[in-house]
Amino acid sequence: MTTKTLSTPLFRAGIDWGSSTFRAYLFDDNKELLESLELPLGIKYCEQGRFEETLFDSIGHWLQPGDQVVLSGMITSRNGWIESNYLPCPANLQQLILHATARTFRRVNCLFLPGVSQQRPPDILRGEELQLLGVQTDKQNYSAVIPGTHSKWADIRNQAIQSFRSIAIGELYDVLINHSLIGAFANDEEWNQEIFLEAAESGYRSNTILSDLFLCRSAVILDSLPPQYTSSYLSGLLIGREIREGIELISHRDQIIVIASANLGQKYLSIFEHLGITITLAHSQSAVQGYQLLMKHHETRT
């Protein structure tokens, strides 16, 4: 991709820097996306905390002295580069940029965004807030879901995150399929959409989810579930249960937006449709829109 020549030093880049992945977005003077970059250089892969070197080795060619870069995600945690505080709910984009922690490296101004927190019950966001607030919608009030290792279910009102809950669905799946007897028979995995949807409905309607998990083992032993479909069954069961809990936690059940990559988004969409629940599917690039809105708020303020 050809990159335009950048003139006046401005807000140039947004960095979504998580545990596993480094994602960077370059913007022009009009806040239009020029270029993006994704590298397997999350904070757990930066040797001896070489965050500054990783940043400038990766996108230094984008930047000029005086440019501003905004960083979000785990890079702003206590395990990251510069720890920023948590901003209590309700939280909006203006407050995020106002409470950012500013540092200068190699004459580039870096703004480390705060996370978002709530006390009752205690929960935290760090990075997902830009996706939740950046999703493109004409609704002032909606609920948003970000599926993942720790899925986020949030209520948004008047462009502010009012409340949210984390559901550790992806992490639980990983532990069960890779590190437990429940998933021990999974082999030569094949995807079976019918089993996935049947398990999702079971998980959604079940009040005995802990007992149901053992079916991943017992059903294989008794030859009622082919071992290659263990993953399809377990994934559906857990996501169905997540949706059951999530629906009970949110307020805007008629305005649900799911923010996810194409593959994961289609899995969730198929379950919602199977259950007769209407949602809107948004692409995970809503983070880009979040950075763009954040930059506009920042420049208006300054």
Describe the SSE topology.
Elements: E1 11-17, E2 22-27, E3 33-39, H1 51-59, E4 68-72, E5 86-88, E6 91-92, H2 93-98, E7 101-105, E8 108-112, E9 115-119, E10 122-125, H3 128-134, E11 141-146, E12 151-157, E13 160-167, H4 169-179, H5 193-205, H6 209-213, H7 215-221, H8 230-249, E14 256-260, H9 262-275, E15 280-283, H10 286-301
Parallel strand pairs: 1-4, 4-8, 5-9, 11-14, 14-15
Antiparallel strand pairs: 1-2, 2-3, 6-13, 7-8, 9-10, 11-12, 12-13
Helix pairs in contact: 3-10, 4-8, 5-8
Q: Could you list some keywords that capture this structure?
A:
Nucleotidyltransferase, domain 5, six-stranded mixed β-sheet, globular, 302 residues, alpha/beta, single chain, 26% strand, 36% helix
Task: Give the gist of this structure.
The chain is an alpha/beta fold and 302 residues long. It has helices spanning 51-59, 93-98, 128-134, 169-179, 193-205, 209-213, 215-221, 230-249, 262-275, 286-301; strands at 11-17, 22-27, 33-39, 68-72, 86-88, 91-92, 101-105, 108-112, 115-119, 122-125, 141-146, 151-157, 160-167, 256-260, 280-283. The model is unreliable at 1-9 (pLDDT under 50).
Structural commentary:
- The structure is a single chain.
- This protein is α/β, with parallel strands linked by helices.
- It has helices spanning 51-59, 93-98, 128-134, 169-179, 193-205, 209-213, 215-221, 230-249, 262-275, 286-301; strands spanning 11-17, 22-27, 33-39, 68-72, 86-88, 91-92, 101-105, 108-112, 115-119, 122-125, 141-146, 151-157, 160-167, 256-260, 280-283.
- The strands form three sheets. It has a six-stranded mixed β-sheet, with helices on one face.
- A hairpin with a 2-residue loop joins strand 12 (151-157) and strand 13.
- Helix 3 (128-134) crosses helix 10 (286-301) and helix 4 runs antiparallel to helix 8.
- It is globular.
